[in-house]
Amino acid sequence: MRRTSKERLAEKIACFGNFGADERGGITRLSLSPAALDACAEFRRRCVDLGLAVRCDDMGNIYAVKQGAEDLPGPAMGSHADSVVNGGNYDGMLGVLAALEVLETMVGDGISTRRPVSAVIWTNEEGVRFPPAMMSSGVLTGKFDKSAVLAVRDSDGVSFGEALSAGGRQGDRAARLSPATCTAYLELHIEQGPVLDESGESVGVVQGVVGMCNYTISVFGQAGHAGSTPMSRRRDALYAAAGIIRRLHDELGRIEGGPVFTCGHIECRPNMHTIIPEEVSFSLDARHRDPDVMRRVVGVIAALPREPDGCRVEYREEWSRKTTLFDPALAAVVKRNADALGYANRFMFSGPGHDAQYVQDMLPAAMIFVPSIGGRSHCPDENTSLDDCRNGADVLLNAVLELADAQ
Questions:
Q1: Backbone phi, then psi, for 372, in 5-degree steps?
Q2: DSSP helix/strand/coil, 342
Q3: For the whole model, what pTM was predicted?
Q4: Is residue 1 part of a domain?
């Protein structure tokens, strides 16, 4: 079995952690921002130094290719370089750096393969600056309309298309990942949860990504002066919203099978301490791999009271996704190589979404998880031990080599 270099991987993690490092101790590297462009430029520079062919497609995705002995499609691996605001140094970027380390190991050890091997950086996976998430892989796989995506604007009024052009990332449509150029896609990623860390296992063999729904729930009341409106006459939208959130937690928590759910975004208007809130909107994110459980979640939302505490309630679905199952044969390749390397592993599902789930609709895909210490992610405390990073990269290397030499 082949091994990657722990020392080289440590240097990569430290180097790329400088791109977007913020004063709060985290990483803020929004898609196509100067920090993200600099990180991708460093990736490109290192790939060119390794003698790899580097190209960019029309959605800004970057590909580095080590040619094979024959002109055939081959396996690809990768992840994303963008982050959330004040996020961590491993989400997305570790998968990019592990893919780069695989290619550097192949070059340095003189490993040749029948098929080419590629590394990919997906543009705008997080969707923080330009929603929705997984934007570019979504366009490649027909999930999103390209013209609509290019027109999406950030909070400063800059469109995604304008940012692509300004960053020099409007490449060639013919460069896109496709079944004509790729036989399989593998993505290494931190788990972003506590399962592997608590079990002491080094590798997660990801079988799929769970389904989810995202709703906006709005409560409409009546504004009034905070000092002169009697309590009995108030229609306080925030008070009513708090009761609905508590009800959602109680009702969803009783669903057999245990969906996970979050009310993570809230807007209160007019949001002034001297005025009774007249409108409150909040998000509900719920996830589970069983579609029957997700239908019960939707049923709970539909059964919410329409006029609590004298207020009016409305809800709307923003978006949803069905559970994605990864290619079983490809997951078996990951499992077989983790076993051969002697790394403790388990089959598992992903709660967060990843580009790999969209790629699976186009060609065989699978994922490799490595532990997140304490289950922490999307925060400065996000961390994975160097040994686990290298173990995951070793599995990726050997799985890719098996796929690249497949007859």
A1: -105, 120
A2: coil
A3: 0.90
A4: no
CATH value at residue 314: 3.30.70.360
Q: 216 and 204 in one domain?
A: no
Q: Is omega for the bond preceding 116 within 30 degrees of 0, making it cis?
A: no
Looking at the structure, tell me whether residues 215 and 270 fall in a common domain: yes
Strand partners, 273: none
- Among residues 321, 350, 384, the one where a domain terminates is 321
For the cut 90, the answer to whether the pLDDT of residue 182 exceeds it is: yes
Contacts with 386 (C-beta within 8 Å, 6 or more apart), sequence order: 6, 9, 10, 13
Task: Characterize the bridge pairing of strands 182-190 and 74-80.
Answer: parallel
Which of 268, 289, 321 finishes a domain? 321
Mean pLDDT of 180-199: 97
Q: By residue range, what is the domain housing residue 226?
A: 211-321
d(CA 186, CA 207): 12
> How large is the average pLDDT for residues 38-61?
98
**What's the pLDDT band for 406 if we cut at 50, 70, 90?**
low
Sign of the CA dihedral 71, 181, 46, 104?
Answer: negative
User: Looking at the predicted structure, is the pLDDT value of residue 36 above 80?
Assistant: yes
CA atoms 326, 332, 333, 336: torsion sign: positive
Distance (Å, whole) CA 142 – CA 229: 53
Per-residue pLDDT tens over the stretch 281-314: 999 999 999 999 999 999 999 999 999 999 999 9
Residues 83 and 181 in one domain: yes
Tell me the per-residue pLDDT of 363-401, one tens digit each, with 9 for 90 and over. Answer: 999 999 999 999 999 999 999 999 999 999 999 999 999
Instruction: List the structure tokens of 138.
Output: 């979504």
Residue 257 has pLDDT above 90, yes or no: no
Distance CA 383, CA 376 (A): 7
C-alpha 394/C-alpha 341 separation (Å) is 8
- Which DSSP letter does residue 174 get? G
